[in-house]
Specification:
single chain, 485 residues, alpha/beta, 6-stranded mixed beta sheet, 5-stranded mixed beta sheet, 43% helix
């Protein structure tokens, strides 16, 4: 099993490399990330799509650096995929051979459909659950769409419109009057069955747009991955960004390194989103590189096992002592079921509670004191995949509260992502109660009215008895321990 794998995306605009580290069979996290703005496709679209020597040399230099970084991180595998600029170029084989001879690296030039598939595979596995969506990945030379229905990839298409391509053909040559006529037949290539309420936004341009909207709305989390917004509500802001001059782009939170292609990316996005009749935009922080890695990791399975989350497993693998038999999640699920008639929470909160229970001891890895606050930071920073922002904040919050009343956190900016106080209070209480029982065996529960009996038929639960004293009386429930009803 290759513990570390490097994946390089050789794009028309940038070359990026991610180092993934596996912590177990399916658990993994991002160990490092590198980027070089190489512009492999620079001046190619005005010169018969031929890769220019200066651009090829920049790419070679970047790949040499990436190779050194991959070896420094002790990567056992290096995957390099070339996309639009490379597959369009008549001299692509010469460049691939050049890199093989000079650097000993193998580049795989993938077609547009494969590029679309990898983006869809990453979104399907690493975003919070959804049934239907169309992914859109805007690159320098092309834009890829992948159709997902009933949690399965069913179709994909690649369009010859990208940020660098539009920049060189229209923006740099001051031929914007011709751009609509150029785009119209390309957009018509999108089949009507790709229309979808959910549009998953992949790629640097779309992440920049999402980041701008997050800043405008003073969104309390910095996580771009899985950030969602209503397209109709934010369309006017996006149009303003499209029409802004270079000096005004900073007011939209756009980084200077993206000034030269953000308007091209914004135009493509608006046109395709409208063509797809999309209502909600889901930002994806993952794309082709994660898709390539997942294809190698999952093989023919295409998706993770049911109820498995790679980020949660990775946090457990790295930061929980494997020799301890944590029982908190076991007791959390039992308590949720036993007390169902009292709390009346929907079943989806059961899975939230179990996830929180699995990570509830993680802060102790850093320091016993303030362990719950440490756990919250671990979760907000490291629970990267498969959870919505709301669920991630809820998991972190109920661990942080540890059974205490939620009022002390009512002024927290994250409060806007949380459900009502009753839900928070119950989940926090159930988790604290499960943690108090963590070191006990053969515990039984019996609910009679508003009294919960907690007991072991063979012996007294002395460890739990002391821990239960620390739990805040935030729930109208009487706890009776060591008494068999």
């Amino acid at each position: 099993m290759a513990k570390k794998t490097a994946v390089v995306d050789l794009g028309s605009n940038s070359i990026r490399m991610i180092v993934f580290e596996k912590t177990s069979r399916y658990g993994f996290y991002t160990a490092a990330e590198f980027k070089r703005k190489v512009r492999l496709g620079e001046n190619a679209y005005n010169n018969g799509k031929i890769l220019q020597e200066e651009a090829m040399q920049r790419a070679e230099n970047a790949l040499r650096y990436f190779k050194e970084c991959a070896y420094k991180h002790k990567c056992k595998k290096i995957f390099i995929v070339g996309t639009s600029a490379l597959r369009d170029a008549p001299n692509s084989k010469d460049f691939i051979q050049r890199i093989k001879e000079r650097l000993g690296l193998n580049i795989r030039c993938i077609d547009g459909k494969s590029e679309s598939y990898f983006g869809g595979l990453a979104a399907l596995n690493l975003l919070s659950p959804f049934k239907n969506a169309t992914t859109l990945d805007i690159g320098g030379g092309s834009s890829e769409l992948c159709l997902i229905k009933d949690n399965k990839i069913v179709d994909y298409i690649s369009l010859d419109i990208g940020t660098v391509r539009l920049k060189e053909l229209f923006y740099d040559t001051n031929k914007l009057g011709n751009i609509e006529a150029f785009l119209k037949p390309i957009l018509e290539q999108i089949p009507t069955h790709f229309c979808n309420d959910n549009l998953i936004a992949i790629g640097g341009s779309l992440r920049a747009i999402s980041n701008s909207i997050m800043q405008k709305n003073s969104y309390p989390l910095k996580n771009l991955h899985d950030y969602r917004y209503d397209f109709k509500s934010e369309r006017q802001h996006i149009v303003k960004m499209l029409n802004a001059d270079a000096q005004s782009l900073t007011n939209f939170g756009i980084k200077k390194e993206r000034f030269d292609t953000i308007q091209e990316g914004t135009l493509i996005f608006l046109k395709i989103a409208e063509r797809l009749k999309s209502k909600q935009v889901i930002t994806s922080g993952v794309g082709i590189r994660e898709g390539v890695f997942l294809k190698d990791l999952l093989g023919t399975n295409h998706t993770f096992p049911i109820n498995f989350n790679p980020s949660l497993k990775s946090l457990q693998d790295r930061f929980l002592k494997q020799d301890l038999n944590y029982k908190t999640s076991h007791f959390a699920s039992k308590l949720f079921d036993v007390l169902q008639d009292l709390h009346r929470l929907s079943k989806r909160y059961r899975s939230i509670l179990i996830s929180a229970a699995k990570l509830s001891h993680i802060g102790e890895f850093l320091n016993f004191y303030f362990a719950n606050e440490h756990a919250m930071n671990f979760i907000l920073g490291g629970l990267s995949y498969g959870f919505s922002h709301q669920d991630k904040v809820l998991i972190a919050t109920i661990i942080r509260l540890n059974g205490k009343k939620s009022n002390p956190y009512s002024n927290d900016p994250l409060r806007q992502l949380l459900p009502n106080t009753k839900i928070i209070t119950w989940l926090s209480f159930l988790l604290a109660l499960a943690k108090a029982l963590n070191y006990e065996d053969n515990v039984s529960f019996k609910l009679l009215g508003s009294t919960l009996y907690i007991y072991n038929e063979d012996r007294e639960l002395n460890l739990a008895k002391e821990e239960l004293k620390k739990i805040s009386k935030s729930i109208s429930l009487t706890l009776v321990i060591n008494q068999i009803p």
